[in-house]
Amino acid sequence: MRYTTLLALSVLSLVAWIPGPTEGSVQGPEDAPDVVEIRMVDKGGGQWRFEPAEVEVVIGQTVRFIMDDIIPHNVQFKDMPDGADLGSLVMGPFLIQKGDTYEVEVDGRFALGSYEYVCTPHEPLGMVASMTVVASTDR
Ligand SMILES: [Cu+2]
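Above are the sequence and the copper (II) ion SMILES. Below is the predicted complex in structure-token form.
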């Protein structure tokens, strides 16, 4: 049973190697990433998408749109909750080059609730997405 002993020993050493939970490793709203990334992608067949198409963000986070395509896309907010006052954010600039980014800071202009946004020219081709602004990701 030499093999079994060896196996038991290696399992034991593996377990010993795995680090235990450290203080403060629990994911809370304070630990939520500062930036939420959304890619603008070509799905082929004349279809474009925001990926992921649904995100949840917290006030204070930044949403970074990343061009992962070679034809221009933008971000136009369409539906938004009462109390939102997005100003010039409603119609974002066109991103032209692959790798270009457009950052939207989710600040006091945003009210809690659901926002629908589109890429202006590609809305009929499926480039429609939503973002929900929540008070906290902790539930
Ligand atoms: Cu587009």
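The first strand starts at residue 35 and ends at 44.
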